[in-house]
Amino acid sequence: MNDLTFDPKLRRLDLAARAAWLYYIKRRTQDEIAVELNVSRPNAQRLVALALSEGLVRIRIDHPLTKSIELGERVRERFELTFCDVAPSGARGNDAPSGVAHRAAELLENFLSPKTPQVLAFGTGRTLREAARLVSTMSRPDHKIVSVVGNLSRDGRASPYDVVMRLSDRVGAQCYPLPLPVIVDTEEECAILKAQRGYRTLQDLYEQADALMFGVGRLDEHAPLLIDGFITPEEFDATRRLGAIGELTSRSFDASGRVIDDAIARRLTAMELRRSPTRPTILVASGREKAAALRAALVGRLGNGVIIDEDLAEALLCDAQ
Question: Where do runs of H (alpha helix) occur along 88-186?
């Protein structure tokens, strides 16, 4: 007779395999497994755990979101994030909201759901604007929705990517826009505007905000700041010469995530960015073309959470290798 038949370790693995088959395939309870294998209930529980630890059980999740979930976990671990949500990538019509916008809307509803007063602060951007439109209507008259970036060009034209007014209308919240040019002509003018009572009120609310959500902007020839006329080509070129690779709330940063402080930055009316935030600071972006900008923002600890799509997640992980 083969002596291996009586090997206690192999015998226990046999029992573990039987316990796992009963638990995962037959859907038996641990009490039922204990009776069938003639062991105690705690022992039945340990046998199922042993089957997992020894690799006797392989769990496969068969769902369209499996890839998104796996990518999200890898991005979260790679950049040490507290929150990461990855939406499936896919073709969509010009008027159809993106998966990222839907996910951002869901998170916004979570932030807005408490009836106790909340302060939420926002940047701007196409995806954030879509998300605000998708938020379910509700009544939150004690909540405050705050903009941290100006919404005008220097000639007085309004930004097409305003978020706070749209969102405030959806949820009946108090709206605090920043009705100033994104960038002004002189540092002196900027200082005067920031000294106004209304600006200081918004600044205080920004510091008190329970959560923040910013769109991530690229700084290349397709940069919205340039295309939409918020900064001149000369200002754009000067920022690029200093290594600017992306922007949050119109404030540019380089590949290391260092916020650039130059003469242009000192004429911006946007609130200052905070590194290593302790409150939820969610960066929202989609598309591989945002990879360099988003990666720099995460390396610089300018946010602690992201909502992105699969294409961008894959590009982030590829760049990080």
Answer: 99-112, 126-134, 164-171
What topology is assigned to 66-320 in CATH?
A: Rossmann fold (3.40.50)
Take residue 93 and report the two structure tokens written for it.
């019509």
Residue of 249, 219, 222 whose CA lies nearest to 236: 219
Intrachain domains 3-53 and 66-320 with the same fold? no
Handedness of CA 274, 212, 144, 101 (dihedral sign): positive
Instruction: Please provide the CATH number assigned to the domain covering 3-53.
Output: 1.10.10
Q: What does each of the 321 residues of the chain score in pLDDT, given as a tens digit?
A: 444 445 677 778 888 888 888 898 888 899 999 988 888 999 999 999 998 888 888 766 666 678 898 999 999 999 999 999 999 987 555 555 689 999 999 999 999 999 999 999 999 999 999 999 999 999 999 999 999 999 998 888 888 888 999 999 999 999 999 999 999 999 999 999 999 999 999 999 999 999 999 999 999 988 988 988 888 999 999 999 999 999 999 999 999 999 999 989 999 999 999 999 999 999 999 999 999 999 999 999 999 999 999 999 999 999 655
Extents of the domains making up the chain: 3-53, 66-320
| pTM over cut 0.90 | no
Torsion from C-alpha of 91, 96, 100, 105, nearest 10 degrees: -160
